């Protein structure tokens, strides 16, 4: 273990080397310094370890049977899930060509054989310090969620809206058959899609009466502002298009870009159907909450007008119907 700015830092190092003696030596050296060490006898096992557990740094031998150190390094650096993990390649002292190839594969550091323990520990610590800072940036995601929830609390009538939206969008996306990555993005977007409202003054956001054209302009800026707020987060790559396009309409009459049909990302089309239903079935100072059949009837007419994706709406109706049937079954079973 080592300290940085009064903070205890630990890390898991993956050592991949086909020589047992090398693996044991590195394991002993790093474990003695408080690092958790995972070892792999070849490139494929190393990639497997990276898929199964959280690794903070990879120490790779260049020449290994199966996938070489270069191939493993290249795969780590081309995968969005692992590319921030520092990779150190161990090469022979005079092998300039090996270093060049390592640079091309995206290696962060090189160590020359025979390994110098002092140099090795210094480099591992320095790279882990850097990794720690990157991890802290990723934790900014948590801050964004808190900000989104505090914006929601400005308007007491939308209480619980973000969580409902996230849960229902994920349920609908699962039913439609979206991939795991898109579903994760949708869950995040459900919470943060309106984060851009942070820039809208209360006088406009909470105005009970009708809005002027200038006030509408301010309201319509929130998807772009939201996208800008979340842009620095790499883990939000797939969330950004959902934030930006959650107010587009299927016929192109929405905002901010006026794109239409399937150009609107499917995740955004799912989120907007769930969002509209939630807005219609929630009470506001100027309107009462509509019942589920009333809300679905209005949405049906909006689908006919060309606003929402008819196929997504059809799946949504089916989901609502199934949920209603579940409630009836539960009420029946409990004798209510
Ligand atoms: Fe919005």
What would your notes on this structure say?
The chain has 336 residues and is α/β, with parallel strands linked by helices. Helices cover 56% and strands 10% of the residues. The chain has 15 helices and 7 strands. The strands form 2 sheets. The chain has a 5-stranded parallel beta sheet with strand order 4-3-5-6-7, sandwiched between helices. A two-stranded antiparallel sheet has the order 1-2. Helix 2 packs parallel to helix 3, helix 7 packs antiparallel against helix 8 and helix 7 crosses helix 15. The chain starts with a strand and ends with a helix. 29% of the residues are buried. The structure holds fe (ii) ion (FE2). The site of fe (ii) ion has 5 residues, from loops. Fe (ii) ion binds next to loops.
Unreliable parts: 1-7, 332-336
Radius of gyration: 26 Å
Q: Count of DSSP E strands?
A: 7
Shape: elongated
Structural class: alpha/beta
Structure at a glance:
With 336 residues, the protein is α/β, with parallel strands linked by helices. Helix content is 56%, strand content 10%.
Overview features:
336 residues; alpha/beta; 5-stranded parallel β-sheet; two-stranded antiparallel ribbon; 15 helices; disordered N terminus; disordered C terminus; binds fe (ii) ion
Q: What layout of secondary structure does this protein have?
A:
Elements: E1 2-4, E2 7-9, E3 12-16, H1 20-32, E4 36-40, H2 43-52, E5 57-61, H3 69-78, E6 87-92, H4 96-105, E7 109-113, H5 117-138, H6 140-152, H7 161-176, H8 180-192, H9 202-205, H10 213-220, H11 222-230, H12 240-245, H13 266-280, H14 292-305, H15 310-333
Parallel strand pairs: 3-4, 3-5, 5-6, 6-7
Antiparallel strand pairs: 1-2
Bound molecules: fe (ii) ion.
